[in-house]
Amino acid sequence: MAFPQTRLRRLRATRALRGLVRETQLSPADFVYPLFVAHGLDRREPIEAMPGVDRLSIDHAVAEAEEAAGLGLPAVVLFGLPATKDEEGSGAYDEEGIVQLATRAIKQAVPDLLVITDLCLCEYTSHGHCGVVA
Q1: Do 110 and 64 contact (CB within 8 A), yes or no?
Q2: Is residue 91 part of a domain?
Q3: Half-sphere exposure of 118 toward its Cβ, with a 13 Å CA cutoff?
Q4: What does residue 12 show for φ and ψ, rounded to 5 degrees?
Q5: What predicted TM-score, i.e. pTM, was given to this entire model?
Q6: Is 128 inside a domain boundary?
Q7: Dihedral pair phi/psi, residue 79, rounded to 5°
Q8: How far apart are CA 4 and CA 39, in angstroms?
Q9: Phi first, then psi: what are they for 61, rounded to 5°?
Q10: Please, what's the b/e burial string for 29-50 (b: 16 or more CB within 10 A of its CB; e: otherwise)?
Q11: In a domain, 50, yes or no
Q12: Which residues are within 8 A (CB) of 54 and not within 5 positions of it... i.e. 6 or more apart?
C-alpha cells in the first residue's frame, strides 16, 4: 500500500483550526528595515551591488526611519560606514562613531522605534576581518 495509508484531517475540521495551522502570514510588524549609514550631509548614494538600496547620511537615515515607523515596521538595523578604518575597528566603539550618532538621532526622532546595530567589525577594520586580529 502506498504512503500515506491514512490521511489525518483533524486539523482541517473547523475554520478556527485551519486558521491556527495555516501558512505563516507576514505583516509590516514582522520586518526590520536595514539602513546603511555614512558620514556627510544630505547624502544618498546608491549601493551598486544592491539595487534600490542607498548609503545614507544621518539626516536621510532619520527620514527613512520615520517613514518605516509610519508604515508599521517595529525596527531598523544600522550598518555603519566609517570615515576612516584602523586595525582595531575603533569606529565601532567610538562615542562619535557613525552608528552611535545615527542611533541617537533616530531615537530622538522616533523614540519607540527599535534600533538594532550591526556588531561586526569588518567594515571598521583596515584589514576587513570581523574581529580584532592579535
Answers
A1: no
A2: yes
A3: 24
A4: -110, 5
A5: 0.81
A6: no
A7: -115, 120
A8: 60
A9: -65, -40
A10: eeeebebbbbbbeebeeeeeee
A11: yes
A12: 36, 44, 45, 46, 47, 60
